[in-house]
Each structure stands twice: as structure tokens, then as C-alpha cells.
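Recap from last week: sequence in, structure out.
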Amino acid sequence: MTTDKKSLALAATSAIFFSVFGMFVLVFVGGISGSRLEIPWFGSNYLAALQGVLGLISACGCIFFLSLTKNQSRLWYFGIPLCITLAVTTLSSFLSPLPLNLDSMLLNQNTGQAALFLLAPCSALFFYSEKRTNDGGMGLVIISLVVCILSALLLYGLIFPQQYAPGSKIGAGPTASELYFWVYYMLGLPIIGALFLSRAFGFHHQDSEPGNLSAQKPTETP
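Predicted C-alpha cells:
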């Protein structure tokens, strides 16, 4: 029963990593209706809406998973950074429509973007925290670390934005940071989301094995 709860928690944690597919759905629905789709509270800011709603689901799933495994994994606290980044991403998304001077606040747009970019390294820590209970744990960590290359490039661009000389012409095409973002958002995050789902299915398969079911039965005393 506990493994089913773990599978559900991991599936919920993966939600925000597939937000790009939600973006496709919203754009498709708007195209069918012939008008720009307006979302309550967020308006036409689809990115903030998806990160807010799906981020809330992911944060709850991550917290639930850690509550189930804190007595089973010695390194369970390595999953706390993922909970924090999910919470910051969610809160910054819900604050984005408010007419506040967010530049003077600790939780502003840049903070939310940084948290989004930190999802990959925090996921690597999360997978590392339970690698002892997962035969393929290091494989998940390594794949997450590969996606972290994009995270590092995006964080560098966020901390050190490209400077343009006065009077210089800015190209009409996308910048390198924009390309990195869309590759990270459309490819990197879904890959990590798939890792969470694979781990969720692993827990479900582990629970369905007859050997594990029999191992849960109390031993009889002669």
C-alpha cells in the first residue's frame, strides 16, 4: 500500500515537468475557439498559469513522497531543495498577475525563473537521495545531470545578462538564452518528468511482484 502511495506521489511530482504539453493544449484550444484563451487570474499568461497550477500539484506530491520515505532513506533530506524550488516557482507564478513592485521583493520574476532553472539539479539530488532503494538510481541521477548543463547556461544568462552597446542593433532572431530556455522547457524538463514517472512505475511493479507481497507477510513462529 505504501508503494502505491509513493507511485502516486512521484506521478504528482512530475506534473510541472510536462507543462509544455499543457501549453500546446491551451494554444490548440485557443486556435479552435478563434480567440485568445483567457485563464482566470492569469489572463493570457499561459506559462505562469501552467507553472502555478502544475507546480502546486508537484510541490504537494514531493512533500508527500518525502513524508513517506523520511524513515526509509538516510539521505531523504536531499529531496528538500526540490520541494523549495517547486514552492518558489508556484508562488512566483501566482504573484505574477499582481500589480506590485516585484523588483523590490525577494520573490520576484527573476527568483521564479531561477527556481525553474534549478528544477534539474534539485531533481538530481532527489534521485540521489533514494538511489539505495532503487537499482537504477544512478542512471536517473546521470540523466538529470546532463539536463543540468542547460540549467547552468540559463542561470549564467540570468545572473549575467547580455549587454548591448548603446546604439547597437539587436538581431531579429532569438537570442542564445531564448534557445536554451525552449530546449530546456520543451525537452529537458519532460525528460526529467519521464524519470519521475519511470520511478513511479518502478514502485508499482515492485509492489505487484509476488516475492515482495510474501515478504510483507509476518513470519510465523513454530
